[in-house]
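Blinded run. Sample ID left blank on purpose so nobody reads anything into the name before looking at the predicted structure. Input follows.
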Amino acid sequence: MAGLQNEHIICISSIDWDPIWTRKQQVMSRLPASTTILYVEPPITLLSPFKDPGTWKKWRSWFRGIRCLKENIFLYSPPVVLPFGNKYRAVNRINQWLISIFVKTAVSRLELKNPIIWTYMPNSVDLADKLGQRKLLVYDCVDEHSEYTGFIDRQVMTDMERELMGRCDIVFVTAQGLYEAKKDYTETIYFLPNAADVPHFLTAQDPETQIPEEIARVPGPIVGFVGVIQDWIDLDLIRKAALAYPAYSFVMIGPTGAGVDVSELKSLPNVYFLGRKDVRDLPAYMKAFDVCINPFKLNRLTDKVSPLKFYEYLASGKPIVSVNMPGVAGFSEVIEIAGSTEEFIKGIGRAIRDDTPEKRDNRIKTALENSWDSRVEYMTEKIIEKMSSKKNTGNGGNIIVNNQT
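Blinded prediction complete.
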């Protein structure tokens, strides 16, 4: 990653730095220490606190201004914006203009010059050009944003994303479905799935890792889930599995999204909701799992998802049962892939019953081939190539590439 030494980066993120780590933080935290990064957290709207009272704290984050995370990473939370920016383009333009005023102030204070703008937000199409001269515009596309539920107009979101990609120097996508859907709208695009912090999650296999008392007292076998419990998680599938295995405990680790009804699951005596856990503690909880589950609903959103939790499961070495989604199709030799509810339920029992040290070692070996270090190294190489190309040609010199790692 030597080629990114001393670069300046503005990362326009779709998630706050804490408490849940995703691709954004994993990538930014692995860039060279000499690279100065302004990590711009997503703003809330005036209506957000009324839908989710937990977002009131974002007002405090804005008043705090620039927050120094470490010597080269600075966090900034923009001001509160108008609602419906993802529904009406005119509103988004107003919001992004407002955000640009504050972000430019942060850029000036940090003395960022000719930065790489690295965005995860389609609506940043109305922000990127307002931040001054830039070296590159990079879009890391992790989801099919137009398929999200809520106050979103699919066509508005699609139009913003396509316009953004048309301006980008490089686009990365996390799933093959995203690549196929977006390859015609940008000149340089790479398929790069999610990954795991392998050394961290591998501590689930460390004899010295202590299982927290909270889960140690849950009777086994334990069927475990880790992740945000959103409306794309198939709660009915989990419910049916819990009913099929009344002697198994089903443990859900992670926050429940606003508007997601988990009352039916909570009513079952063998289902446990342990809430959000710090990423540093997750391997200790996963050590107690006998099998991990990846229970996505199958729809147009999840057809184009690279499930982050799946790679973390792999790195823990634990058996895995997943629904049959494109993001895991290439891993059938090391996990159980279920094409139906019945297969999913049977797969849980089989994964626990038939596990062996050899299977565990194969899962860990596969995880090592899909680490965040390797992903960031690849992204860095492509960014360096693009910077070199622009210097040599004075323009993009772009090509379409499908690189599957």
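Unblinding after everyone has recorded impressions. The chain has two domains: 2-195+372-393, 198-368.
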